[in-house]
Amino acid sequence: MTPDARDRRMPDAPDPGTKFLLDPYIDWAKGEGVPIVEDFAVDMLTMDTAPWERFGVDGALVHLKGRGDFVAVQLIEIAPGAKSAPLRHLYDEVFYVLSGHGSTRIGVPGGESHGFEWGPRSVFAPPLNAPFQLFNGSGRSPARLASANNLPMIMNLVHNEAFIFENPWEFVERAGKDAYFAGDGDLISLKPGSHMWETNFIPDLASLALKPWEARGEGSKNLKLILADSVMHAHSSEMAVGTYKLGHRHGPGAHVFAVTGEGFSLLWYQGDEEFVRHGWRHGVVFAPPDRMFHQHFNVSDRPARYLAVSLGSHRYPVTALKRARKQTPEASVRDGGWQIDYDDQDPRIHRIFLDELARRGVASKMGKVFDEEKILERAVGRGGSRG
Hints:
Number of strands: 25
Largest sheet: 9 strands, mixed
CATH architecture of the largest domain: Sandwich
CATH class of the largest domain: Mainly Beta
């Protein structure tokens, strides 16, 4: 080997002072001094928090296995009668209220401000870099809020805390209508699965009127959310009692917050012999990993609704993959898409669903899609039971 060739070789390990393979977001997160929870799914109502000096409240960070490169979740806990520090930052976020009651005050260009009161299952988004503050309205109970945000993407792009948290720039066009801060909004009708509700604040996501989207599953409803003209995608979907969604997959970073009802999700990669199973109820968040098939099942005696938040809204898809997926979300795997029709799903899946319904005493509403008597008889013939 010539001397020149030896000089071109990579060293076995870089010098400790060398900047090499850095992740500025992870470095920032470790320096914040709050718990960092890493898991497939997390119950945010029970996880531990610690004082978070930056925000003036207690908090924690949630890094789910399927979060990808662009999105993570912050947990904010406000003590009874307390308030956060004044906040503003150059990343988009969507707040989902897990517990407690309080209010938010948001400043807009021109010196005006807007305030609104929130409670469990409220959703809101401060406009980009608008100053805001969170207040706990109860003198007896803490309040917990989850923030799904694109700070990982922004921090890894600019790797400068002061630029993100101390920048005075005003995004005049992002505030939207005054009514958007009062819980009103505009319905933008396109087609099933693409209808959008534009606002900055939803007082109660559980009561927001969703639109039918049967192509996503029997009894399915859905509504896309445009919040503060953000690049963060959000949508709410609902499964009727005794039903479940079609299996599908997508890219990473879709954080799913259970809102109403109870159920479970099955997850698997193409070719897997077994499923990964996770139960959910209000307070639980999970994120399916990149291109991992998953399917959501309502096994409670009331409709089950969830909120999904990721990077790339229907207005601003951000990535080419998101833009393509939003154009043909119902395309079957038979046609090169990422959705599995009921006729093509693993035959074990419906039996798993029926067994869980029987255990809970809930009736299936999937009889017009599946011959459930035959499925049960086949199970009995193999030595199974109807209960």
